[in-house]
Amino acid sequence: MIELVVVSGKGGTGKTTVLASLAALAHGAVVADCDVDAADLHLLLKPEVLKDVPYQGSEKAEIEPSLCTGCGLCRSVCRFNAVERSGKVFRVDPLSCEGCGACAFVCPAGAIQLKRHLSGWIHVSRSRYGPFVYGELRPGEEASGKLVTQVKMQAREIGRRESADLLLVDGAPGIGCPVIASLSGAHAALVVTEPSRSALHDLERVVAVARQFRAQPFLAINKADLAPDLTRTIESHAHHEGIPLLARIPYDEGVVEAMVNGTPIVTYGDRPAVEALRLLWAHFSAWFPPKAAEEARDLPPKPVLEDG
Ligand code: SF4
Ligand code: SF4
User: How far apart are CA 67 and CA 129, in angstroms?
Assistant: First the structure.
């Protein structure tokens, strides 16, 4: 199974629009939304959730009242003001606790323990385009490579069971821990960029990360016609760096309309952006034809990081 991760150097470049369209064009690909901090692909794919898997990512301190002597040391060392006092009773506010463990370290009575805490869920679902797995964090929880890895693991498992040719992954923007976790083990990384002044720098950074994981980088330039000079500069840089350009997607008002209506733009019939996205899919399929996917299926899976 070929793993294609769609990434971008920064948010708001149209990454999710591209990915939803690829999901619609690919017919039966497994899709994973690893942009767990801002998971929004489900708004376009409208899946039916089949299973919610609890995700326990963080730890929180808990005070055992029967052991606590009320010395107050835990409260004095907590930099996050998470230990509350009411008379002689001390308790930890789980919303403020960062799980650093300082209080448990200093507690002379051994009354504090760090316990695993429900940080979110992994939703295993099915959309009209095929299996879809996405993560959801509870309010206040931080995105982590661990959750991304677990989302990918679930998606890979489904892909193996259903003998899928392609796993499409929506990666987080930037180059932080969640992106590293989503690129780990991938065969290809499609960087979606817009012709802006920071685009080259963003492209260089994310391509460097993709190459570290030996994922073949590709490029798609969204709203390419809005700044033709910058588009040409990005294209010539990509050509020089050996990054194949798969599509120049023109600005198209239908993209916003499709998002508002909760559907991938490619379901909208003939429009300039749809034509470009179909070409993108055709070019990618030429790079990784079904035969390559079959061969990849027989190979042992590429290793993934256990934690981003
Ligand atoms: S440090 Fe331990 S014993 Fe002292 S107040 Fe905190 S929980 Fe109680
Ligand atoms: S684990 Fe850290 S953040 Fe949480 S209550 Fe203890 S000292 Fe404060």
Answer: 55
